[in-house]
Amino acid sequence: MPLILAVDDSPSMRKMVSFTLAGAGYQVVEAVDGQDAYEKAQTQTFDLVLTDQNMPRLDGLGLTRKLREHPNFKTTPILMLTTESSDLMKQAGRAAGATGWLVKPFDPARLLEVIKKVIK
Amino acid sequence: MTEGHQESGGGDSFDLSQFYQIFFEEAGENLDLMEQMLLNLNLETADDEELNGIFRCAHSVKGGAATFGFADVAELTHQMESLLDRLRRHELQPNPMMVDVLLESADASRVLLARHQTGDTSAPPSNADLVRRISELAAGGTPAPAAVPAPAPVVAAPAPAPVAAPAPVAAAPGARQLEIRMGPLERPDQVDGIKDLFRDIVGLGSVTEVASDRADTRVFHASTSSSNDDLLDLFAFHVSREQVNIREMSAAATSWTDRDDPPPGAPVAPAPGFGFFEGAPGVPTGAASSAAPVEVTEVRPAAKASVAKPAASPVAAQPEAATIRVAISKVDQLINLVGELVITQAMLAQNSQALDPAANQQLMAGLADLDRNTRDLQESVMSIRMIPMSIVFSRFPRMLRDLASKLGKKVEFVTQGEATELDKGLVEKITDPLTHLVRNSCDHGIEMPADRVAAGKPETGTITLSAAHQGGSIVIEVRDDGRGLSREKILNKARERGLDVSDQMSDGDVWQLIFAPGFSTAEVVTDVSGRGVGMDVVKKNIAALNGTVEIDSSEGYGMRVSVRLPLTLAIMDGMSVGVGDEVYILPLSSVVESFQVKDDAVNTVAQGSRLVKVRDEYMPVIELEKVFQVPRYDGGKSGDIMVVVEAEGSRVALLVDELLGQQQVVVKNLETNYRKVPNVSGATILGDGKVALILDTSTLVRRSRH
């Protein structure tokens, strides 16, 4: 069963994401911010990382950068969930090593559609 | 991944409403946090951390509101976010006006959220003026104060008023004439709100809809001086950026601002609102990048990664408040069950007293263990309901800030002992009385700055709110360094009102006078502290919680009001008394003394009322036997024990047969199980399984007055 790391500092967004994913048969580990996610990534590998951008302690870009330095996460898909879809943001995401982005607000169907594309 | 996942979880039928509750709570917390941070914000020295924190609060609420479909909340918080974004980027210097507007917006967001939460479908309050002020501040301007003092109720706002003027409207200087195409849209009506945006946001310009060549696309002509980016941001709540095309009508018809968008009319795939970076790690093979390929020159050399530092030791993991949310009903159920357990345990303990300790040694040891464990369990369960006083205290800084500026006073607010915990039920009930006391301090206690300086005091007054545990109770104090109570004024006022007072009264007794109904010494009745309906209500509310209020004051130096409350309402220290075969419980906090009465100490006066003389003081006698019509089977020997109880400042002597002892009792509500019974505040189950009524001393005292 594919294992997904869902990172968001908002409990309701986290719940919605993990509920959606669990309902679709994925296994989900939640993290409350980038730092928490990074710590969880030390002991576990994931098939996909879904991360919010704006979070306390460590933001989505920072998390992506740190994960890409970790041998286990060289090729893991990392999707950024962001409200900012500006080119600047996309460039920053790309530079950090993200796989792609998904604009918030999104609905559960959209989320699953994207995930299906990156998880084999 | 196996086939068929999507069917099980996704789809349009996915019900987001199951997350509403958690979102409402989260949004509320975010708004509270934001308010707190705004109030603590030092405008000159605001650092990135603070500004980012405040921004994040608005950002989170906006994100959630947009996701869960609360467009009005999302729109308002979006405006707040824009202003905060410029602040955190140091493009603007924070000023008090911004703090005011943001605080107001947070309030307005709460109102909107509450409407969604309660399913209120009446006309929503208009936040147009607020939105205008935020956006003007965000644009670096100084907005005119609120157009209307009170949030004017929307008087049947004509739904999306069709803009009368034909496009393009007479262009304002610098305004551009734009054609805005939105589509393809799943539901064309999803962009109805665009017209409202132009109507609500002053200075945005004007818009009018024109005929579209496609059913799933809507076309608007707008006259505005806003940038495309700003417009796209505004539209983002109705339609995703990718579905919007903006072009200047004066420019060549083909110069589309979104360079990678196909020209209108060309068949386009629905914009997905997501994309992958070509060549990035983890990109699915063959997944067409649905976004413009982004040129990125910086490529991380592989070598750099391999020199990765040894998994940067995660900083001593900041402890997160690991909490879970549980419905209060579950906690109450747990408390109830533990209450039952305590009773069963007490019954076992009582029954076991009849057993021979030597022959039943093991059983007795087990029962002793059970006793200890039950008590521990009870304490732990009770502590679940305990919440810190900071929950109550946190509402005061804002209130005082508003109040002080309204009154033209300078007040500093200090809190102590915010971590002190109190039963949730009590916290809810103590909030109003405390609010009243704090308001009083600010309104009547603290003097105007000039008066303070004249009196040799610092210009800024101080109001201190403190909480501390003392034995089995919690003591909450409201202190101020204002003018204090005036003995003269209170006595004069009392005489005016025909109260029986004398100049020889002790200070303590004089201060108690302000608890009399309708008593106010304020020379000017302000709209803040009302018209003297207050202190009596405060006292009554606190008494209803088995609490007491004390006042200490020194004229010219300030006053202190101490509220003493039991830690919880679920357990009470009681004194059990026997009348006939019945057992009644008196709240220990109201028992003053008890004594055996001699016949000649009781006098019968008019209408059969009886008085007892205790140390030169006469007090009414209440015979519980008569109040509750306790039957006598043993020939009618009446009791001769008096228990003096005090409530609402008066004392009465209750005549009972015997004193049975003191014990902790688990309070059971009578109303939920039966109905309200006069003179009884609740019931409890005794160790032997019998039910005993808990007496309501305040109604008994009141009864004696008639």
Question: Care to describe what's here?
Answer:
The complex is a heterodimer of chains A (120) and B (706). Chain A has 120 residues and is of the alpha/beta class. Chain A has helices spanning 11-23, 34-41, 60-69, 87-96, 108-118, and strands at residues 3-7, 27-31, 48-52, 78-82, 100-103. Chain A has a single domain, classed as Response regulator (Rossmann fold). Chain A contains 5 helices and 5 strands. Chain A is globular, with a radius of gyration of 13 Å. Chain A starts with a strand and ends with a helix. The mean pLDDT of chain A is 85. Chain B is of the alpha+beta class and 706 residues long. In chain B, a hairpin with a 3-residue loop joins strand 11 (548-554) and strand 12. In chain B, helix 2 runs antiparallel to helix 3 (48-67). Chain B is elongated and about 105 Å long. Chains A and B meet through helix 1, helix 2, helix 3, helix 4 and strand 5 of A and helix 1, helix 2, helix 3 and strand 5 of B. Strand 5 (100-103) of chain A pairs antiparallel with strand 5 (274-276) of chain B, so a sheet runs across the interface.
Helix content of chain B: 25-40%
Into which percentage range does the β-strand content of chain B fall?
15-25%
Task: Record the strand order, biggest sheet of chain A.
Answer: 2-1-3-4-5
Give the overall shape of chain A, derived from the CA principal axes.
Answer: globular
Examine the secondary-structure arrangement and name the CATH architecture of chain A: 3-Layer(aba) Sandwich
Low-confidence stretches of chain B: 1-12, 147-173, 251-270, 287-320, 523-533
Largest sheet of chain A: 5 strands, parallel
Strand order in the sheet with the most strands of chain B: 15-19-20-18-17-16
Number of helices of chain A: 5
